Amino acid sequence: MPGRQVVAAIDFGTTYSGYAYAYYSEFRSDPLKIYAYTRWSNEANLQTIKTPTTILFNKDRNFDSFGYEAEMKYEKLSAEDTHTGWRYFRRFKMKLYENEKRLRKNLKLYDDQGNHMPAVEVFGAAIRYLKDHALMQIRHRASDFHDTDIDWVLTVPAIWEDGAKQFMTLAANTAGIPTDQLMLAYEPEAAAIYCQHLTLPSSMHNGTDYVETNPMSKFLIVDLGGGTVDIAAYEMQDKGFISSLSSPSGGPWGGTVVDQEFRSFLESLFGKIVLDDMCTLHSLEMDHAIEATKRAMAKSKEDVMFKPPPVFDGINSMADVRTIRDRIVIGNNVFTKMFTTPIEKITDHVTTLLKDPILQGVKTILLVGGFAESDIIQNAMKDKFSHRYNVIIPEEAGLAILKGAVIYGQNPCVVVTRRLAFSYGISIDVPFDDTTHPVERRFIRNGKEMCENVFDVFVKKGDVVTPGVITVQRELKVPHIGATDIRVDVYKSGEDCIPTFITQCKKVGELFFALQAPSTTEQVLIKVQMSFGGTRVLVGAQEVNQPWNCVTAEFDWLM
């Protein structure tokens, strides 16, 4: 943005998080000159490209540590039996998806001890840690660098609802990132933006020399994260711009599903009591053993050894599972079955999407995200789709979203259009029509028959919208003379056929207007302008008759 020097992106994931940054001055000559911090170290001093999304607060609810440091600190406290009262949260991003139907500003998160904290404080502290870590790295290059010199980009799943996006904005504000320095980037969009800058050799897919990046070529992004899978289709435009072909879709089919299957397998192997003891007494060791086994199996077709914590004295008999001293040998076929659920969910969903006429002409399927680095997932997708499509896994698939978010922050206009996943509107009363309106919705106002609770549609599901462009305009009256504000309930529907009444929709928020100079003689008429094309819905308003009077307008999705 004008006057700023750097754009930095935070990829806040369910299982792992990280950041990257770039300088505006270098972007034109080399859009891929991106500095991603990839030197996170665990207790074994092994470096990873991201750090676990794990955070620890002390007994006074003050921030203590994040990532590997939080894991090691809490493990030490647990070993010394001094952890009681500390608050340890991991993989908490999924709580926004799980609670999206009832997400509120006062959402609380609970740790394994039953302690709770306001979710916005937990998310805010995590973002603040990553923000401060990034600033420290940036200042190593330019010591006179100021907080106001930077634009921040925060990645979010495209399938998230508006409330979750507003929540992340509030958390970023809590972390010290002002709204005017913050952009949200949809994860599959960021990946699409990054991949169009790559030259992908034929060894990465199945035959063609390069991915088509010429105008009008179409491709599908499958973002395989730890918690959710985000899928969207795009079309290349001139000069590297992209347009959305489909509304984003997906579900909770990420890598943590395999973790859950693995734990169920271990429960069958050891019994619930022994497994609970392992998870309680050796939580970090168990997590790392599971992760190491997953990674080893994902890169091999051979049996894999799992070394559990030293509290088991035997296992239940199970086919293709045996012990060698203090290790358990798991047959490849046993472990592969743990991927069955996410593979079926993902491949079935992609198959359904590709039947949509609007996606005819798609030739490429790009797999990105940390879960995309699993050979088991890659092979399943290739087995299912490579006979008709180029199935591509770019190098550093786990960093594609992060680096793409940096590029997006440099030029948000690269996304030309988006396609809406929902219809949005408000409730209005209209003159009663006995040929279309049910009699139970009829009422009398000022001697006229009216019909109540009609869904007045602002935008429709599937509409193509342009970021930064006014999508819809409305004129609304304040409820009475002298009123200082208006609150209008906002509803949405995911149905292809637009509902007639709001009772067939879901209330998702409020449209709020505050008048600086309310009239004492008439009901003020307000002109409202809304833009649904960005990653956040924007609204502006002014008085029709006295446009110089200030009117504050905003959407609130977290009532």
From TrEMBL:
GO terms for molecular function: ATP binding; ATP-dependent protein folding chaperone. It holds the Pfam family HSP70. Keywords: ATP-binding, Nucleotide-binding. It comes from the Eukaryota. Belongs to the heat shock protein 70 family. This is Heat shock 70 kDa protein 12A. The lineage of its organism: Eukaryota, Metazoa, Spiralia, Lophotrochozoa, Mollusca.
